[in-house]
Design a protein that fits this description.
Length: 380
């Protein structure tokens, strides 16, 4: 089969870095009071810095599409004219700026340097960025495209601002067991942040710099075995089903902060590591890859809380990857959902640590209804 290479990587992080102590300056205070869960969540997730597409007083500075278009332009900063050769743009995100038009056409609309090209959008959560990578990979491998750009991004800050919970906050005093927003909503305010990353895929390695050959890319959903864990625009029912915002009275959208993002923390802890990283054992065996063959391991983690848990489940499955082979920038860049793995790989390449012939394993779990993506790359 024809080979496919990641020949360029780029990132875009909006504005200045935001420290943990300054988060509520940007996101606001619910009921004008500091969050009780913030310190607990930050202590567990280990994130010290992140980026928001907001001013300090909470005003928007970038749309999701604007961040992606900036990341794509950064792919071509050394040769701006080459952006006109792009013949596919495929983007993944949890947080498009609107329901319609699609996210990718809005990105394309900000790139007049390109032509009348194919664009596709992938919805979902963290794995949506990996679905975009796979679409680009298959497009180049089939010979249908020569210069495919894929991207992953999030603009989550608008959804986790205090104003999202304004109406619900009026009723919280009556909830004696929790005077603030329910933990499954407030929890994610301290976990998520903004940014975008992009890759250029071609059928041959770049003449200069580091290229990565894509050996294989495997994705799998466990939704047939699990209830929903993370959701937005819906309300979880007692039987585990979701009631769509489309079937709710308009007032409920405000009173119950239906457009906020929520997570079933107990379900997350019970399933997210065990299922996906056990699946990896069969994938590696299928491709005749052993743990010793992996030189760099890039696990997308929402929190450092999961680091030791991932290590343990890998070890139990005969995949012992020592920590010195792990690379993550979660502490410095934050959890950017679908954009995290793009920004992580871009950071690893720019670190200068890669050597020709080394193997890089990407791992992306998604908690929405438990999906997983794994990709093996070879440094060229």
């Amino acid at each position: 089969m024809p080979q496919v290479f990641i020949t360029k990587t780029a990132s875009f992080l909006p504005n200045d870095v935001v420290s943990s102590s300054d988060m509520e300056k940007y996101l606001g205070y619910i009921n004008d009071k500091p969050s009780k869960s913030k310190a607990i969540v930050l202590r567990s997730n280990g994130i010290e810095k992140r980026y928001y597409a907001l001013t300090e007083d909470g005003q928007a500075t970038h749309t999701n599409a604007e961040m992606v278009s900036s990341a794509i332009k950064n792919l071509f900063v050394d040769a701006p004219e080459d952006i006109s050769k792009v013949d596919l743009i495929t983007c993944g995100t949890t947080t498009p700026d609107q329901l319609l038009p699609s996210h990718s056409v809005m990105v394309h609309g900000l790139l007049p340097e390109t032509g009348q090209i194919e664009v596709t959008s992938n919805a979902g959560s963290c794995c949506s960025g990996m679905h975009s990578l796979k679409f680009a990979f298959l497009s180049v491998m089939s010979g249908d495209k020569q210069n495919a750009v894929c991207a992953g991004s999030e603009r989550i800050s608008s959804i986790i601002q205090a104003d999202t919970f304004k109406e619900e906050g009026k009723h919280l005093a009556a909830i004696e067991e929790n005077p603030y927003v329910a933990f499954e909503k407030d929890f994610l305010r301290w976990m998520l942040s903004d940014g975008a990353g992009a890759f250029l895929l071609q059928d041959k390695p770049a003449e200069q710099g580091t290229s990565l050959r894509i050996e294989w890319l495997e994705l799998a959903s466990f939704a047939n075995k699990n209830d929903t864990c993370m959701y937005m625009g819906a309300e979880k029912q007692k039987d585990g089903s979701l009631l769509s915002y489309q079937n709710m009275p308009q007032q409920d959208l405000l009173n119950k902060s239906i457009l906020s993002i929520k997570q079933d923390v107990k379900l997350l802890s019970a399933q997210i590591v065990k299922q996906g990283f056990s699946l990896l054992k069969g994938i590696l065996e299928k491709h005749n890859i052993g743990a010793d063959d992996i030189d760099h391991f890039l696990p997308h983690m929402s929190s450092y809380f999961f680091k030791d848990k991932i290590y343990t489940i890998l070890e139990e499955n005969g995949i012992k990857i020592p920590y010195e082979k792990w690379y993550t920038n979660l502490k410095e860049k934050g959890n950017i959902g679908a954009g995290s793995i793009y920004i992580m790989l871009d950071g690893l390449i720019k670190s200068g640590k890669l050597k020709k012939g080394e193997k890089v394993l990407l791992a992306v779990p998604e908690s929405a209804r438990f999906s997983y993506a794994f990709c093996l790359l070879t440094v060229c």
